[in-house]
Prior knowledge:
This protein has 304 residues and is α/β, with parallel strands linked by helices. The chain has helices at residues 4-8, 25-39, 57-71, 86-98, 128-138, 158-170, 184-196, 213-223, 229-235, 242-262, 276-285, 295-303; strands at 14-19, 45-48, 75-80, 103-107, 142-147, 175-180, 202-207, 267-271. Flavin-adenine dinucleotide (FAD) is lined by residues 49-50, 52, 78, 80, 105, 107-110, 127-128, 146, 152, 154-155, 160-161, 164, 168, 177, 179, 206.
Amino acid sequence: RTAPLLAGAAGDVEVSFEFFPPRSDAALETLLATASGLASLGPRFVSVTYGAGGSTRGRTQEAVLGIARETGLNAAAHLTCVGASRAEVDAIADQYWHDGVRHIVALRGDMPEQDQPYAPHAEGYANAAALVAGLKRLHPFEVSVAAYPEAHPDSTDMAADLDNLWRKVDAGADRALTQFFFSADTFFRFRDLAAARGIDVEIVPGILPVANVAQLRRFAGTCGAAIPPAIDRVLEGLDERPAARQLVAATIAAELCGALYAGGVRQFHFYTLNRAELTYAICHLLGLRPAPATAEQKAVLTAA
Length: 304
Ligand code: FAD
């Protein structure tokens, strides 16, 4: 049997890339270089996360604007409503609109201390659905939201979580990006349930190429994503062998993307962890090749 990826994937996919904000000026330069390297693959958008409780506000803004300036890509800003008043959140969104950013990934966020149950700010947006409605009232932003193929840990069950996703879409969300997962069947089940619930926006699988096994186990535990035993076994013992780990991580992600592709998925959102090569390799396997720069990108490069 020929591997579905190599047999089937013809580059007819759309990708997006997620980065986290740099912690220093030097890291910003590295991030801009990483984003420029991946820009040649023609992502339809890239996004920059927002640190817990808005801790990276300035750095997120700097990275979003820097990437847009250096690459000419549609750069989206993640924005959370935890721990902030509506006025504070609206002021940040207004600034983004003023700076030319047209796409927000709207999230609730988590409390600063782990295991603390979520409580909205007294004058804040209550949850992501309320934030989406607030953003859409402010400006005609393109808005993406989060979705959870294995249900969010705070939800009572999948039906309640799907009701919540439906409310976010009803409030105006244009697309849902999923939490990472490791089984294609998990995604397909979720996609079917969402369709049955009347959720009609695109649901884009979030793909996490594994960079650090120990960290992944901790993170998967807190966000409710299951690592299938076979994958856990295959990752065991690789944290001291970065080159081998890269190869194995690429294989795992490529298998997942291949299975998703075979099941009809044509859009992928990559958690790049600010590293270009692993994501680039998987996109290459999906059939993507560097595109000639667009007129807009050429203008940006000439001006730089
Ligand atoms: P919501 O959609 O508001 O929902 C969270 C939970 O609360 C759900 O279980 C929902 O069912 C329940 N709920 C909400 N409203 C109600 C209601 N009225 N009644 C009953 N139950 C309700 N975090 C960051 O801090 N910064 C980031 O940049 C960031 N980026 C992310 C990107 C993606 C693609 C994903 C998947 C997650 C990201 N997160 C980020 C994490 C996210 O902030 C957390 O998962 C958070 O716990 C939930 O955010 P949400 O937007 O999904 O919340």
